[in-house]
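Lab notebook, bench 4. Still working through the backlog of constructs that have no structural model yet. Next entry is a single chain of 303 residues. Request: give me the structure tokens for it.
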Amino acid sequence: MKIFGFNFSKRTLVIGLIIIVVIFISSMASKVSKQRELDERIKAQQESLQAAKNQTVAETKSLTQKELIQKSLRERYGEPPEGFEWDYAGNLVALGDDEMSYEDIVYTYIRSLSILDFSTAQRYASVSKVANTYNNYYGVASAAVANYYKNFLRKQYKHALTTLELNSIEDIAVFPDGEVIVTVKISVLDLSDKDFWEKDRLELFETILVYDETESDSVKKEQYIYDYVYKCYEDGTIGKREVIIEIVVGKENNGGWLISDDSELNFYLKYENGVDVANYILNQYSTWSIQKKLQEIKDNANK
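Model written out:
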């Protein structure tokens, strides 16, 4: 048989046709296989999405109102640190620990403060005046208006914290609303000590007098006194005293026990409403220098 000018035997034509049919069938089979594979993948994805949707719906139905609110807040603000949840404004709220007693909470809180572990301390406090005070001393706003006196108060507060000790729990008062007042005995830096410097009185005053007579401002003499007092903190010249304070503990947010009032502790760490010893020494110097000048005037008049 002649095709396009070429001679082909019947046998060759049959073989060629068979090859073409085989190729066609293979091609169709491959397409069918790929389509089936694609259909199966799409079906699996759809089933997976539906399962996830069903699970989400089921989980949502099983959540309490509070859990639904927290879920929404986490979507807005991200995952909170362990031991905290969000309030509506995006502030962290401590949850406490259901397995810890209020005595454990008080011990843990004071221990954490003494090693400046505020992340742990604030996990167990709904309100922490101590943490707020420390943050104010070391915050951006304080840094912007820093001066020698503020630096001294900041270092003094930090040192008072790091020397804080809880010695014992004295008693516990439990109220019907669930609030607990824990009375504790602590050792705290004695910021009320006004006598430790008396041995150095004359040396201090004469040094300050030189600054007064040679410097145009008071910065140097003030810094001299601040450094002197802080050195006495560090070398133990100014010791600690035992005081008995009350710390209020309560339960909030359906969580564990939390410190709700540490204002008395903050009072002793800060010596609030009292005259700090550095200013006390400077006031004593002012009285001394005035008396000294009056005495010099009197002596000159008698000559």
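Notes after review: The chain has a mean pLDDT of 82. The first strand starts at residue 2 and ends at 3. Flag for follow-up if needed.
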